[in-house]
Amino acid sequence: MGISEELRLAPPVAPGPTVPAVSLATLALLFLRIGCSSVGGFMAMVAVTQHMVVDKRRLLSTEDLLDGLALASLMPGPVAINVVAYVGYRLRGVAGAVVCMLGAVLPAFVWICALGTLYFRYGNMDAVRTVFLGVTPAITAVVLASAWRLWRGAVRDWRQGALALGAALLLTALPGLPSTLLVLAAAAWTGWKYPRPALAAGAPAPATDANAAPAAPAHRQQQGGDDAAAPTPRPRRRAATALAALGLPAAALALLAAHSAVLFTLLCAFAGMSLLTFGGGYVFIPLLQHTVVDGYGWLSQREFVDGLALTQLSPGPVMISSAFVGLKVAGLAGAAAASAGMFIPSAALMLAASGMVERLRRSAPAQAALAGVRAALAGMVFGAAVTIGRMAAPSWLSLALGGAALLALLRWRVDAAWVVAAAALLGWLAL
């Protein structure tokens, strides 16, 4: 009997320990902090989420977060916000997903609207860049620290180490969706074809923080007694609930926007772009340019480039540039309509597909494939750290701030939000 046959006959992997209960208010404050300290693209937000949710508070396991990242990498829309929605859903269901998304997006939305208002009034924001001289090295350190912790949790043998190293090298040299899909496919096949002995034998994973997977979202475990042991809703019912709950705000906004052709057009245009964008924010830039500059003429080429620069100086995902475009077209209401179109549809799809991850955890062959994918994702985070680090100013100050931030994160476990804030202040004072 071959390994593939053994895997088919292996019993399901036993669920890990339950995740601790957490209130919606706590999640809102936590993700507001994450949103404020996630400068540098989607992987920066993923890294800060991993630091805050997994390392500091142990609300989820490393493997659970990596599973969400793997699914988000295959879904349309902003990867970081899809991961945030997944984390919120795992902790408190659809309500948790909505709260976490709002907390993560709100700081970037407010920041872009404030900077955009100043930009459209004065036309120059070069002075703001000085504040962020120290932010890029600090965010690079946050991503590196996250990659190291993910590596320790996901890499267990030389094959997984080779997958992680190969993913880091390939994604550094050839970033983009094709490379990401190639890495994930190769990692899944390698993990399935050459499983670790424990997975091949169908043994449950050890209940450690590095590889424990929650049995059910925490909002179901808070009820206690018989309710805590109740079966989870069927996947179709859960998908319908997720789509309805996240679709209601979009539908309400659509009805309001129907009274304004411009707001309705913004909502639909960015919803379409959200569902057509695979691979993260930087893949979204060419589509955004074609739509808002060449198609609708909402921005000039100079305004488009300056808007992207402002998003690099703001916390949160690159796709918050939707708020910049909406602000130019229809003020604050336009910014809200464009942002809702950008983030809500893809997040609803992400939650509808989250049941796939829970089903995969009950399959030994899928667990073997996911082990390979998790190792590759750890390497991809290393590659993202290199990409972000290249954006830092080439100076001794960047090296010093990055080294100090990495030491604070790994040695003293300082909160990432404080590390980023201190680096921003030091970078501004050094000028």
TrEMBL record:
- Residue ranges, annotated region (Disordered): 205-234
What domain of life?
Bacteria
Q: What GO annotations for molecular function exist for this entry?
A: chromate transmembrane transporter activity
What is the protein's membrane topology class?
A: Multi-pass membrane protein
Cell compartment(s), UniProt: Cell membrane
Cell membrane listed as a keyword: yes
Work out whether the entry's keyword set contains Nucleotide-binding. Answer: no
TM segment ranges: 20-48, 69-89, 95-119, 131-151, 163-189, 239-258, 264-288, 333-357, 369-392, 412-430
Q: Which GO terms describe its cellular component?
A: plasma membrane
Q: Where is the composition biased (Low complexity)?
A: 205-218
> By its UniProt entry, which InterPro entries does this protein fall under?
Chr_Tranpt_l_chain, CHR_Transporter, Chromate_transpt
Q: Keyword annotations for this protein?
A: Cell membrane, Membrane, Transmembrane, Transmembrane helix
Q: Which family does it belong to?
A: Belongs to the chromate ion transporter (CHR) (TC 2.A.51) family.
**This protein's name:** Chromate transporter
The species this protein belongs to is: Rugamonas rubra
The organism's lineage is:
Bacteria, Pseudomonadati, Pseudomonadota, Betaproteobacteria, Burkholderiales
